[in-house]
Amino acid sequence: MSGESLARVVRREWDFLIGGLAMLANATAIGSSTASSQHPKNHIYLVGCGYLYTSPCTVTGATTGFAATSILSLRGEPFVAIVEGSSNYYQAITTKPMVERTLHAENVPTIHVGISPNHRSYRRFRAIARPGCLAIERSAYQEQNAALEEAYHGQLSVEDATRLFEAIVSVSVSFLPNARRADSRIEHALEMLQENPSYPLKDLACAVGLSYDRMSYLFAETIGLPLRSYLLWQKLHKVASLLGCGKTLTEIALAAGFTDSAHLSNTYQKTYGITPSYFLKSDCVEIHSLCLQATVSAVA
User: Fold this and answer.
1) Using alpha carbons only, what angle is made at residue 100 by residues 158 and 265, rounded to the nearest 5 degrees?
2) 36, 185, 270, 300: which sits with the fewest CB atoms below 10 Å from its CB?
3) Cα–Cα nearest to 32, from 53, 13, 52, 48
4) pLDDT for 243
5) Sign of CA dihedral 200, 201, 207, 212
6) pLDDT value at 29 more than 70
7) pTM for the whole thing?
8) CATH: 2.40.30.10, 3.30.10.20, 3.40.50.1100, 2.60.120.10. Which one for 17-173?
């Protein structure tokens, strides 16, 4: 399947991330967020296995993405989420990956946590029953309230944001059903792909003792993503890790395995509905990452 046709498939089936990240896919599917001069900036913290995104005002169209998400009203005001056509008011909601969702949180500050496919708890979110969302009492996250406020104002270090991310995931997971035991051969294949994203797939199948077709079937059954779509997610995840590091779009594209910046931008646009240059040039979004944090420390 060509890169272009694969992007169309991903766009049709999942249509958008966050994140993850908002850009990853985790993180999190944010669509388009708006911020005015009266509001704080949007902040996105890139935390390795997902993202934490804050916004004073988020209104999206119907989106779907690679990431599982937990979305919290910062101060308890209700927002509207439409999941697979079912509309309700929520103060906190967790959604499984790859379900269609629309968010209306106009003038309601929200925190979006995107859990990427490489997170150890990702499969737990896949076990959420239809329509693919679970309302959680906002009070369940009350121990995180102070850190959530700091994140919203861009005051957390990436290390502190990572701890907050894991705390929110832990609370969300405590309400989720158990997932089926993963096939050990697929877990081994995942480890090998994380070490070498360019591992030839037929060789990978042989290494884990499966035919290519059987590995592809079990991979989709276990992870919830077709194998080639997972590989695309890995490339986009690499892009996200490089945003905010002072690299040009061309440098990011080549480092992530795209032929050039146009190839990256086209794939990103078709997958997420926005281009990566939005995060590089936007005055509305501030990126927080270990790479950027290290750069700032070196300059200081």
Assistant:
1) 60
2) 300
3) 53
4) 76
5) negative
6) no
7) 0.78
8) 2.60.120.10
